[in-house]
Amino acid sequence: MKKLFLISSMLAIAVLYSCSSKDKDKLPEVYEGPILESTDVDLYYSDSAIVKIYMKTAKMLQYMNQDQEFPDGIYIEQWEKDGTVSSSLKANHCYYEKENNLWKVSGDVVVKGLQNDEQLNTEELYWAPDEKKLYTDKFVRIETDGEVLLGNGLEANQDFSSYVILEPKGTVTLESEDEEEIEKDTTEAK
């Protein structure tokens, strides 16, 4: 009987000790998710009391390393000193890397250069504010007054007033409604 009690006690101690040592050796899990979540955000960035950037998003997540994510889309306007909008950007998703000061937008990206009345469409675009530059290696479509430019890759200044398509694929000339009406009228008269 003593043997059975001794064996049972040793077995119970071994089981209890093995459980507690596993818990001691186990490190706590590090949380890597967002530390701040904001909804329905309207932000104004200014320099020397002059608004430079306006940003609107439905949801903003901020992480421990100060990176930010905008999982439900983003809309950004760049403003001139006189308060006029010089360009705008809209995308389905955005991620900002604080360490590199780099914005990555993706999903139905639309950039409008309002001074030149031009529009860029792509699926992914990077914005480097320190370099005042936009770039991508993805397919791009740029609509200007009267033509559409197609290609892969793009480098542009951040207000989209100047750009280079890295691998141009083609140009399509657009007819205005007036030209279509004139052409229609002349063919009907024949």
TrEMBL record:
Pfam families: LptC. InterPro entries: LipoPS_assembly_LptC-rel, LptC. One of its GO terms (cellular component) is plasma membrane. One of its GO terms (molecular function) is lipopolysaccharide transmembrane transporter activity. This is LPS export ABC transporter protein LptC.
